[in-house]
Amino acid sequence: MIKISRTCVNRIIKQAKEHFPIECCGIMAGKVNGELIEITEIFPMTNVDRSPEHFSLDPQEQFEVYYTIREKGLKMLGNYHSHPHTPARPSREDIRLAYDPKAVYMILSLQEAAPRLKCFHIENGEYSEIPLVVED
Ligand SMILES: [Zn+2]
Q: Residue 128 is part of which domain span?
């Protein structure tokens, strides 16, 4: 199960709306306690693709964020991105580019009036949803 604060979720939604119709993206950090993954911080990143259908992180920004995460004693948990026009599930491209079976891939869909947020593990070309709890 994954826990994330309402504050982090609201920041992701705000970022996604500001960048609409371009996909927004970022990195998530926090703690892992057995089966429980706690996202405590998010780091908005630049989508260097500037595309409404895919995203790439900026390597330099990525390097700096990884450094900050280590400095804070947190763990890099995975990344998030928005789907401006499609549902909250990994696209074929998302599956193809998923390199870490332990990483959390979070997707925020703006397809419908109410934003939808879902988390996945992706391994061997298949994805599985991880239950997500948003805490106030
Ligand atoms: Zn995607």
A: 2-135
pTM (two decimals): 0.96
Instruction: Assign residue 73 the CATH number of its domain.
Output: 3.40.140.10
Q: What are the 10-residue block averages of pLDDT along the chain, 136 residues in total?
A: 98 98 98 96 97 95 98 98 97 94 97 97 97 96
CA of 46 to the centre of ligand 1 (A): 15
Q: How far is the CA of 86 from the centre of ligand 1 (A)?
A: 8
* Helix, strand or coil, per DSSP, at residue 12: helix
Ligand 1 center–CA 67 separation, angstroms = 25
Contact between 39 and 29 (Cβ < 8 Å): yes
CA of 38 to the centre of ligand 1 (A): 22
Q: Is 105 exposed, middle or buried (0-12, 13-18, 19+ CB in 10 A)?
A: buried
d(CA 129, ligand 1 centre) in Å: 14
